[in-house]
Amino acid sequence: LHHAQPRTHTNGNDSKKFKGEVRSPGVPSRVVHVRKLPNDINEAEVIGLGLPFGKVTNLLMLKGKNQAFLELNSEECAQTMVSYYSSVTPVIRNHPIYMQYSTHKELKTDNSPNQVRAQAALQAVNALHGGGMGTMAISADASSMGGGAQSPVLRVIVENLFYPVTLDVLHQIFSKFGTVLKIITFTKNNQFQALIQYADAMTAQHAKLSLDGQNIYNACCTLRISFSKLTSLNVKYNNDKSRDYTRPDLPTADSQPSLDPQTMAAAAFAAPGIISASPYGGAHAFPPTFAIQQAGLSVPGIPSALASLGVSHTGMAAAAAAASRLGLSGLTATGGHNVLLVSNLNPESVTPHCLFILFGVYGDVMRVKILFNKKENALIQMSDGTQAQLAMSHLNGQRLHGRAMRVTLSKHTTVQLPREGHEDQGLTKDFSNSPLHRFKKPGSKNYSNIFPPSATLHLSNIPPSVVEDDLRRLFGSSGATVKAFKFFQKDRKMALIQMGSVEEAIESLIEFHNHDLGENHHLRVSFSKSTI
C-alpha cells in the first residue's frame, strides 16, 4: 500500500486537496493557490486576477502543473478575492480557473529564471498601479473635469427606460472596466438607479468617462453617471436588486412586496436567484464564463436594435444578439421565458380579459389561464421574453382589485389550451388573434410610450363630439375619483385624466381601454409619464 501515500511536492499540502472540483477554500491566508491555468498562461495574467482586490506582493508560477501561487498584501484582500471568484468563476481562454487559500502564509522565492520573470512582471504591474507618474497624470486630469469628489462608487441613473435593464446587464457593462465588487439597484423619483462599487476610484473614473451619456440599447436606456458620496456599499442580500460579489454567502432574502409597490415594480427586474456571469466583459478580454442557464434572461432580444454597448455580444445572450441582428421583435430571445406567473390575485373579480388588457400595456398577450383550483394564480403568455420582462418589471407589486400582485417568470414555455370538449369555465382564453395587440407593428410608436403604472392616464382616439364632461362622467361611473382632466392643445383627439390613485387608474385602464365612444371610435388608454 506504499504508493497510496500522498506525494509531496514543493507545494506540500496544497496539491493533496484537489482531487475533486468542489472543495472548501480552506483556512484564510494571504497566499492564494490558483489551479487549472491554461498552458500558455503568462505572469501578468495571473497577477491580473489579484489586482482588483489589493496589491500583489509575490508570485510563484508552477507552469508544468498549470498552477500558481499569488501573495496579496493582506489576508483581508485574499479573502475578498477568493470569495469573489467562488461566486464568479474567472475564465482565461476558455479555461475556468479554480482557487483556494494556500497552506503557506507567505511565499519565499529564489533566483531561478522562472522567478526572475515573475519579479519583473510584478515590478512592471506595480509601477503601473502603484501611484507612479502615470497615476498622477490621471488624477490631476480627473480633478480638472469636475463632477464631484472621486469615489470607487458610481451613481448611475438610467433614462429613457423603454426596456428593462437588469442588475446583470449593468454588471456586464461595468465589468468591462474592472472588477465590479457590489451593485445595488433601486427606484427613486420614478427613475431606475444603481450604485456600483469598484475596487478603486481610478477604475470608477475610467468607467464614468467611457460610459456616461452612452445608450445601453439603440436609442434607449441612457446612462447618466456621477461619483457617489458613498465610498463603500453595504449589501445585505444577494438577489435581483443587490449583489455583493465578494460575499456569495449572503442570503437572497425573500423579495416579497414588502417594499412600496413602485420600488418593487421598477426594481424587480431579473429572475430571482444569483445569476453569476464572468466579471470580464472585456477588461482582460477573457470570454464570459458560461452561457447562463437562463440563456440571457438579462439581455432581452431587442427589436431591431443591436445593443450599442455590446451588451448582447457576450455569451450571455447569443440568442438575443441573433434576434436583434435579424430585427425580430417576436422572437423569444430570452430562452423561452415568455410566460409569467401572477399570484395573489383577487379571485372574486379577476378575469382573463382584465389580465389581457393590463398586461397588454407592456406586450402582446397571447394566452391567459386562471388556475382552476387556485384562482388567485394565473399564467400569462406574452409574445416574447422582452415583453414578459417588461410586464414583470412594471406590474410586480402593483395593486389590482385591492391586492398587491406578485409577478414572476414561470417555468412553463407556453400556456396549454383546454382539450376539445373540456371547457374550463372560461378560465383559459386564447388572445393570439386579438385586434387589440399594441405591438404587432414593428417600430410602432407604442414601443416608445411604455411607462410604469401611474395615476394619470393618457387617452387617445377621442371623437370630436365627446367633451370633457363625457369623459369625466365615464371614468367616474365605476366609482373612481377623477381629480383632473386636460385635452392636448395641439390635438383634441388626446387627453390626460388623473385618477384618485394608481390602483384606480389601473382599474380604469382595464375597464375603458377600447371603450366604444360612438362614431366608430374606440378609446385607447395607457399610463402617462406626465401629470396634470
TrEMBL record:
Protein's cellular compartments: Nucleus
UniProt KW DNA-binding keyword: no
Residue ranges, annotated region (Disordered): 1-27
SUPFAM superfamilies with a match to the protein in the record: RNA-binding domain, RBD
Family matches, as Pfam families: RRM_10, RRM_5, RRM_8
InterPro entries xrefs: HnRNP-L/PTB, HNRNPL_RRM, Nucleotide-bd_a/b_plait_sf, PTBP1-like_RRM2, RBD_domain_sf, RRM_dom
All residue ranges annotated as the RRM domain in the record: 30-104, 154-230, 338-412, 455-530
GO terms classed as biological process: mRNA processing; negative regulation of gene expression; negative regulation of mRNA metabolic process; RNA splicing
GO cellular component, one term: nucleus
Entry's Gene Ontology molecular function annotations: RNA binding
Main location group: nucleus
Transmembrane recorded as keyword: no
Sorted UniProt keywords: Acetylation, Activator, Isopeptide bond, mRNA processing, mRNA splicing, Nucleus, Phosphoprotein, Repeat, Repressor, RNA-binding, Ubl conjugation
PANTHER family: MATRIN 3/NUCLEAR PROTEIN 220-RELATED
Name of the protein in question: Polypyrimidine tract-binding protein 1
Organism: Salarias fasciatus (Jewelled blenny)
